[in-house]
Amino acid sequence: MSITSFIPPKRILMGPGPSDISPQVLQAQSRPTVGHLDPLFIAMMDELKQLLKYAFQTENEFTIAISAPGSAGMEACFVNLVEPGDKVIVCRNGVFGERMRENVVRSGGEAIVVDDEWGKPVSLDKVEQALELNPDAKILAFVHAETSTGACSDARALGALAKQHNVLTIVDTVTSLGGVPLKVDEWQLDAVYSGSQKCLSCVPGLSPLTFSSNAIAKIQARTTPVQSWFLDQSLVLGYWSGEGKRSYHHTAPVNSLYALHEALLVLKNEGLESSWKRHQAMHNKLKQGLQKLGFEFVVDEEHRLPQLNAVYVPEGIDEAAVRAHLLTTYNLEVGAGLGALAGKAWRIGLMGYGAREENVALCLKALEESLL
Ligand SMILES: *Cc1c(COP(=O)(O)O)cnc(C)c1O
User: Fold this and answer.
1) Which CATH architecture has domain 12-18+271-371?
2) CATH number of the domain at 23-268, please?
3) How much distance in Å is there from the Cα of 55 to the middle of ligand 1?
4) 234 or 242: which carries more pLDDT confidence?
5) CA–CA distance, 281 with 275 (Å, rounded to integer)
6) Whose CA is closest to atom 2 on ligand 1?
7) Mutate to test the pocket of ligand 1, among 74, 92, 174 (most ligand atoms within 8 A of CB)
8) CB-CB contact of 370 with 325 (8 Å)
9) What does the domain layout of the chain look like in residue ranges?
């Protein structure tokens, strides 16, 4: 057996994540490792918090990155906020809404599910009805950008409904952060998690997270300890904001956090508004090309995410063979359909650094040639 260093090819990642990472961010990650309690590293973490607050558009003091992927951010929200017996209204219009429901149940909560068709946004009417029928509900949980379908739900309106009914919100913004407008404070969202590897174009394995003061108050009022030691945010708090007396909780993924710092700096330098506009402009280009090729979108234009383009696979096409061809011939990765859309759709991502002209052009050319 002769094992040598792994040298990956240079793929163009246009699936549902991970997304393309810029050389600048990859370089940041390869800088020398320092101790995770080194004063210089702690100063970097403070800047990271500032940058995360900007990305989330929040002043929440508790704004950090969990040392694990988006799924851990999801789990952190549920295990901290849901106490056994709590009623949680969960919106399910794709794969990630169903994962939220599972998290409610595993946290000992009672899930009240509001179902919407795959490809549709969460229905405000149904949520309002569920809130009225369940005045004892404590939390409303929903996915802002459903990556399994490419549908964007109205997080602002859902946040407002939740406040009217005096419930907290848990919001999945893994695919929305950086790609479409998201304003945590203005929209009054409470527990919001994201991921590093979608529109932030950072290395996978980190989950930005922010808690409002109301979310913190619910955690502090718990009568039972959080069953997960690693994700118990009351313990992590001392590490991220120990104000000079930072103590050990776990070893931070030092180099990955360098990459996140750099990726957020790139976002800040571009400006959030410009980033949102760029995603929309690239989507418009891709959409025009795809429509010329005869593709139909899964989601109606008005609720479509620019960064996740789900299109139906044309009749009579072996979708897996085409994706394999794209990968081997063009080094291009596009996503397969997930769940109800498995085998029926492709998911073309335009996320972060990947949302640029040359990627759109390559994708259209590769699809055209492959389908001939
Ligand atoms: C990708 C994704 C997740 C999970 O993130 P991981 O980093 O893969 O764990 C959760 N929710 C949504 C909407 C996602 O797109």
Assistant:
1) Alpha-Beta Complex (3.90)
2) 3.40.640.10
3) 17
4) 234
5) 10
6) 174
7) 174
8) yes
9) 12-18+271-371, 23-268
* Residue 266 contacts residue 22 (beta carbons within 8 Å): yes
Distance 18 CA to ligand 1 centre (A): 10
The pLDDT assigned to 310 comes to: 98
Query: What is the predicted pLDDT for the residue at 247?
Result: 77
Whether the per-residue pLDDT at 32 is higher than 90: the answer is: yes
Burial 119-132 (b: 16+ CB within 10 A, else e): bbbbbeeebbebbe
Confidence grade of residue 237 (pLDDT, cut at 50, 70, 90): confident
In short, whether 69's Cβ falls inside 6 Å of ligand 1 is yes
Q: Cα(192)–Cα(173) distance, rounded to whole angstroms?
A: 7
Taking the C-alpha atoms of residue 97 and residue 94, their distance in angstroms, rounded to an integer, is 6
Position 241 pLDDT exceeds 70: no
Residue 250: DSSP 8-state: S
Same fold for the pair 12-18+271-371 and 23-268 = no
For the stretch 41-60, pLDDT in tens is 999 999 999 999 999 999 99
68 lines ligand 1 (CB under 6 A): no
Strand order in the sheet with 191-193: 62-66, 207-211, 191-193, 168-172, 139-143, 87-92, 110-115
